[in-house]
Amino acid sequence: MARLTAGIGSSHIPALGAAIDNGRTAEDYWTRCFAGYDWTRTWESDQKPDVIVLVYNDHASAFDMNIIPTFAIGCADRYTSADEGWGPRPVPDVMGDADLAWHIAQSCILDEFDLTMISKMDVDHGLTVPLSMMFGQPDAWPVKVVPIAVNVVTYPPPTGNRCYALGEAIGRAIASYPEDINVQIWGTGGMSHQLQGPRAGLINKAWDTRFLDDLTADPDRLRTIPHIEYLRETGSEGIEMVMWLIMRGALGANVRELHRHYHVPASNTAVGHIVLEPVR
Ligand code: DHB
Ligand code: FE
What is the pLDDT of residues 36-50, one digit of tens each? Predict the structure, then answer.
C-alpha cells in the first residue's frame, strides 16, 4: 500500500525561483534564506519519495475570474511551467501521477469532498518554486506530482477547518492506494505577507512562529483561526497558510517536527519552512 511518510510546509515566493534560475543564491541577500533548505535537500535525497501531493494556489495563471475552483486536483500525466509575464521558468516539466490522482479524486469525492478534476493546466510559482527549493536544478524532477490547487486568491477562500478535513480525506485516500509507493504531502504559500496597499511589507514573526509551533503542539487551534485573523495579523496574502493545514490534516493526529527554518527578508514575505513526520 502507499505510505504517507512526511509533510513539508514552504513559502513559494517567486523571487526565490528567480534567484535560483539566475544563479544568484550565493549573493549576501540570499545565502541565509537558502541555507535553511540545505537540511531538507540532503534529507530528500535519502527519503526518495515517489510522489508529492503538492498543495498550492494558482495566481491567475491557469485560472482567472472565469473559473474559480475552491479545491481542484490535477489528473494529468504532465504539467508545463506557466508564463507569468517573464516567460515560463526554465524548469523541467512536472510529471503527474494520473493513477494516484484519479484514485484520490474518487476517494475524496465518495468521502464527500468534491474536488474539481483537471486534465490540462500550466503550473505557476506556487508549485514550481517549492520543487526548486527542495530539489535544486535537476534535468528532470526526481518525483511525480499530484497538484492540489486551492483558491486563496478570490474571496471567499475555504476555512482552515475545511482545509484540515480535506487533508484528513487525502490521508485516507493515500492509505487506500494499493501501489507500494512513498508519498509526501507539501503545503505551500505564506508566511505573513502583504504585497500591496498601505500595509505592504507587513511581517508578523510572533504570529508565524506560533503557527509553526502549533502545527505540532496544537493543530486544533489552527483549525479555528478565522479569515479575519489571517488578514489582520498576517497581511492580505497570509491566508495562503490555510494550505499548510491540508498538509497537516493528512499526517494524522500526531507529528514530529524534523526541521524548521524562518527567515526575513525575502521579497515582501516571511519565508517559512517546516518538515514534519507522522507519529503513528
Ligand atoms: C510574493 C509572495 C507570494 O506568495 C506570491 O505568490 C507572490 C509574490 C512575494 O513575496 O513577492
Ligand atoms: Fe503566493
Answer: 999 999 999 999 999
Q: Which residue has the cell 490555510?
A: 242
The pLDDT assigned to 1 comes to: 97
Label residues 9-44 b or e (16+ Cβ within 10 Å = b).
bbbbbbbbbebbbeeebeeeebeebbebbeebeeeb
Q: Is the pTM of this model over 0.85?
A: yes
Domain 3-278 has CATH 3.40.50.1460: no
Domain segments of the chain: what residues? Answer: 3-278
Which residue ranges have their beta carbon within 6 Å of ligand 1?
A: 12-15, 59, 189, 193, 195, 237, 240, 267-269
Cβ atoms within 10 Å of 123's Cβ, excluding its own: 28
Cell 503538492, residue located: 54
259 part of the active site:
no
Catalytic residue among 59, 103, 125, 261: 125
Task: Kindly report, residue by residue over 180-222, the tens digit of the pLDDT.
Answer: 999 999 999 999 999 999 999 999 999 999 999 999 999 999 9
The single residue of 12, 193, 261, 273 carrying the catalytic annotation is 193
